[in-house]
Task: structure prediction
Amino acid sequence: MPSPRPSAADLLAWYDRHRRILPWRAGPTEPRDPYRVWLSEVMLQQTTVAAVGPRYARFLARFPTVGALAAADWAAVAEEWAGLGYYARARNLHACAKAVAAAGGFPCSSAGLAALPGIGPYTAAAVAAIAFDAPVVAVDGNVERVVARLHAIEDPLPAAKPRLTALAAGFMEDPAARARPGDFLQALFDLGATICTPRNPACALCPWQAGCAAHGAGIAPTLPRKAPKRARPLRHGAHFLLRDAAGRVLLRRRPAEGLLGGMLEVPGTPWRDMPWDTPDALLHAPAAAPWRRLPGLARHGFTHFELEMVLFTATLPAAGAPPAGEWLDAPAARQGVPSVMRRLLDLAQA
Result:
């Protein structure tokens, strides 16, 4: 016998009792600021709620409005984003803020939002629903998991994404969901994050238990299925930590385009498939100095490859002219560089 259709009213009633208190989430009687919604959605891409919370508050204190962000120098934005990863997001965030400020505000539709720099279908739908109550469903990992279990979809991801997205859009056929689209979407997010979790879902506490086909079939913890991941290739780099007599560290800014575009880095070689031997690596050193290779490796995982780096250190000779770059003391250097470069600073302190 088919499971009853899950009720949006039941989910919303559960949400009204159990909604998470999040720094970017407006309370039931508070106005929704599209800037805060958009900023949180960008920060949360590929990053956990726990990691984003304090960084969101700090970023908002420095750039409290979209106009303030648009008017900021890129270096200030890059500094504030350092450590959050996926740095193309920061470049797009800055470009989008400029476009919004020039237009006088955010558009309120998914289509209008998707036309802005760096805003894809998911972010456009999330901001439209949460900030403007547009009747759309943004599909993230939480929503995919909820939908896959509700309908017992056993096709593996990522091939199942179009089907899951279409099924999620069907939620808006329920009048209760259409009456509160923003709350309904956030209820889906909370359900996936707190009840319908990847492992050991708390089905006994779920407001949609009766309508969940996977729960009825006893297969909820196994869904959604995922295709096996390909092994990521390994790349190698060599970097050079140069200090001056005052103990400041030399950093350089990467080109605006490409991986880690516009971020500060410890100068080094390109990253390649083969390890670097010392003579070849030293051809990329930022200055003539008594370089010493430290023992050990700094490792970092990117989306499409793993990286292993060796580190050379030296102190700038007293007679040497300081090479071009940004000289920062150790705390400022750590704060200003992305996570991959912090791995090198950690290696230097080991």
In short: Strands lie at 234-243, 249-253, 264-265, 292-293, 298-301, 306-315, 326-328. The chain has two domains: 8-222, 234-349.
